[in-house]
Specification:
heterodimer; A: mainly alpha; 10 helices; B: alpha+beta; Nuclear Transport Factor 2, Chain: A; five-stranded antiparallel beta sheet; 4 helices
């Protein structure tokens, strides 16, 4: 079972390409509107306005981007890891109740059950197969930690810029990690991601989008979690 | 893959991870690069603050040229020339410089007897507030400054 033959790079990768394009467009829009906002505040305070180039390399822009990214990757880490053990009956985002757990090597096509076209690290066994078995969560978790660290470092600089503009003392990284600014930025993003993914898990029980792999078939019963049930 | 298998649109998800990983590395690097550039900014901000505090008593006209526009306007509000108004404020002799902090476009230079705040403009660092002292142990209460923009 190797799937249909390739149909060309653009058609076979359209989903990734469109999301990549949308990401860059949104990032560009955020940069432009962020610079406009920064410059409005600078004019109000009688301070220097900045160019787009200077704004996108500023800590203010970096923290605004990083605080959203870390929460997205945390969302994926939690969802990928928790759906191994937790289920939502009837949701296309869940395994079938009763299938919780790591599953057998035969089900996971690893070791002696690997197919000839399985990834090498799934076939070889040992530490490489163990790592590869968790590679998705590991990479997501690393990107989450990198983004969250970037938020902390850039957020401290941006906060200190604001503090000194208001004639206050700047603070160190340790002190910044217990400020309302750091945790406000962090938790406001976490709650929205948890709401979105929790909503998706529940809405997918009762609602449909014809043709989308994120949805059950339109006629699938609400109580059915997988078509094989 | 079963039609109802749990998924997050895995093709798109992997691509987003790849693209985002590169951008996250950039995001991680930018603040650190800013930190390296901050060494140069610290030297420049410290030099401007040193020049300002020295010239306040010796050459107030030159000291006025180091003020941010809003701060200079504030001194001249009563129709008095900047240099004359600056002299009248009787800023404290600063003493030894003890610290220079830079974050983005703002800086704070601390002396034993004075604290100066600066902001970065196209033509370099300019003093936004001087003759500043803490009046409260509460860190959320700003410095009280003899000279500052309105």
């Amino acid at each position: 079972m190797t799937g249909p033959p390739p149909r060309g790079f653009w058609r076979d990768n359209s989903l990734s390409l469109v999301f990549g394009g949308l990401l860059l467009a949104a990032l560009g829009g955020q940069a432009v509107w962020g610079m406009i906002g920064y410059n409005e505040a600078a004019r109000t305070a009688g301070l220097q306005q900045v160019s787009l180039g200077r704004y996108v390399t500023s800590s203010g822009f970096a923290v605004d981007v990083a605080e959203n990214w870390q929460s997205e990757f945390l969302q994926f880490v939690l969802y990928i890891a928790l759906t191994v053990w937790l289920v939502q009956r009837g949701s296309s985002e869940s395994k079938t109740p009763g299938d919780e757990g790591r599953e057998s090597d035969e089900q996971q096509l690893v070791g002696s059950f690997a197919r000839p076209d399985s990834p090498t690290w799934a076939r070889v066994g040992g530490w490489r197969t163990r790592i590869y078995s968790h590679s998705l969560v590991l990479v997501m978790a690393l990107v989450f930690l990198a983004s969250w660290s970037a938020q902390a470092v850039a957020g401290r600089v941006a906060d200190n810029e604001e503090r000194m503009r208001e004639l206050l003392d700047p603070i160190g990284l340790g002190a910044y990690l217990v400020t309302p600014d750091f945790w406000g930025r962090t938790l406001q993003n976490w709650q929205s991601e948890l709401l979105a993914i929790g909503t998706m898990a529940v809405f997918a029980i009762y609602l449909r989008e014809r043709g989308s792999p994120e949805s059950k078939e339109v006629g699938a019963p609400h109580g059915v979690t997988r078509s094989s049930d | 893959m079963p039609p109802y298998a749990a998924s997050m649109g895995q093709g798109g998800l992997r691509a987003r991870v790849g693209t985002a990983s590169v951008l996250v590395m950039g995001l991680t690097v930018v603040p650190w690069l800013s930190g390296c550039g901050a060494d140069v900014e610290r030297q420049q901000a410290g030099a401007v603050a040193d020049a300002f505090t020295a010239e306040v008593s010796s050459d107030p006209q030159a000291a006025c040229a180091l003020l941010a526009p809003r701060t200079e306007q504030s001194l001249e509000e009563d129709g008095e020339a900047c240099a004359r108004a600056l002299t009248r404020e009787e800023l404290p002799a600063p003493g030894t410089r003890t610290a220079v902090n830079v974050a983005g476009n703002t800086a704070q230079v601390r002396y034993a007897e004075d604290t100066v705040f600066l902001s970065l403009f196209d033509d370099g660092w300019r003093v936004t507030a001087a003759g500043c002292a803490r009046t409260s142990p509460d860190p959320a209460v700003p410095y009280d400054c003899a000279v500052q923009g309105s």
